[in-house]
Amino acid sequence: MRKPTCLLLALTLLFSSCKEWRMHKRSESDFPHILLSDTLRVLTLNTSTSYFLYRDQPMGYHYDMVRDFCRQHGLVPEIIVAENTGAMMRMLQQGVGDLIAYNMPVTNALKDSVFYCGLQQISHQVLVQRALREDTLISDVTGLIGKKVTVIRSSKYQDRLENLNNELGGGILLEAADSDTLVVEDLIRSVSRGEIAYSVADDDLARLNQTYFRNLDVTLPLSFDQRSSWVVRKDAPILADSLDSWFGGRTAEPDFMRIVKRYFEEAKGYLDSDRLSYKEILGPGIISPFDAWFKQQGKRLNIDWRLLASVAWQESSFETEGESWAGAIGLMGLMPATAASLGVNGDDLFDPELNIRAGAEYLRHLLNAFDSIPDPNEQLKLSLAAYNGGLGHVFDARALAEKYGGDKDLWAGNVEKYIHLKRLEQYYNDPVCKNGYFRGDETINYVRNVISRWEYYKEAVSR
Prior knowledge:
Blueprint: H1 2-29, H2 31-37, E1 39-45, E2 52-54, E3 57-59, H3 61-73, E4 76-82, H4 85-93, E5 99-105, E6 114-123, E7 125-130, E8 148-152, H5 156-167, E9 173-177, H6 184-193, E10 198-202, H7 203-210, E11 216-217, E12 226-233, H8 237-250, H9 254-264, H10 291-301, H11 305-316, H12 336-341, H13 352-369, H14 376-389, H15 391-403, H16 411-421, H17 425-428, H18 441-460
Parallel strand pairs: 1-4, 1-5, 8-9
Antiparallel strand pairs: 2-3, 5-12, 6-12, 7-10, 7-11
Helix pairs in contact: 3-9, 10-11, 10-13, 11-18, 13-14, 14-15, 14-18, 15-16
């Protein structure tokens, strides 16, 4: 009779040990342990609304919100980029990350295995339509009858439009676009340009793109509301409570509202029709009030001063006190971190002389980074692309060009092509890319506009 007793005792001890081990593991996964480590591991996706690199700086609505939470608790966010939402959920459950910072749909199926917490939103799909003076806005879904609406093939937007068409008894002309070469933002841009009449997008993505394309209306809902939220594991209830407390206490705070405004309200681009092609100068031989500093820095760094003036106009329209939505400051549109690396900090960025000096030095640094390119014109184009979008994305585009048979030293049709393609998942997730998703159309326009204006300045004003 002793053997069963010993076996029972052994099983009891084993069960107790396993229970203690699980409790230990649970405590290591929750917020007190995270606070001790000083690091919050954050899972997210490379998208224009969640996380991306611009001018070599991390940005994104969800990223900025995570930073706000981390600042409150003295934590450093460690960003871990996943390929898709399914991969994010697997990585969370495997303990690779502590938090999913992304709009994860709230579903009953997952409520037993995760906590929905932190940043929570209610979203829906909307109609994207142009809103110029001559356009007639659709204000009710019945107005879509007889209209052509273009969506990505096999997407949730196609599913919703087909269901809506059935609800209306037919009549919507649905056009499905190739999902391999287009993203939703491409269709939004096409609506802005008048190339297609209508499309469909989630309201947060639509509102963000409205800040780039100011001639859009995105107010007509096409679907029911869908709740979405950040997510943590079930073994992290204290982290979930801390995130909920942060969100509940911050929604009316200025810093919180500033982040919302940054991504969903502040203008970020120009319509094709009014993209600035400045064709004026102040007077005979004078481009701006800052010409003396452009000339001084141009001579010191062997850069045509009129090129520096063209960059300054594109960045700020010669406004010394301005700050872009991304945080670029002053005449030359410098990111604070970039300026600091060149010895210009804080309010000194608003000093035009110091700002021009730092901007010129940064452009010279970029030109030097591409000094292996034999053609100086191509060297300049890649340097301007890096000035606008960031050196990392240009390096990625050169690597893609080389991999797929292009010329990494040639801008038009080569590096430019892959700058544009970095908006597509199959390219920004390519192993040769190190900097992820990129919205490249602004950079392509930037290079063209700066060079075009520089050519005009060279004709109008002597060296």
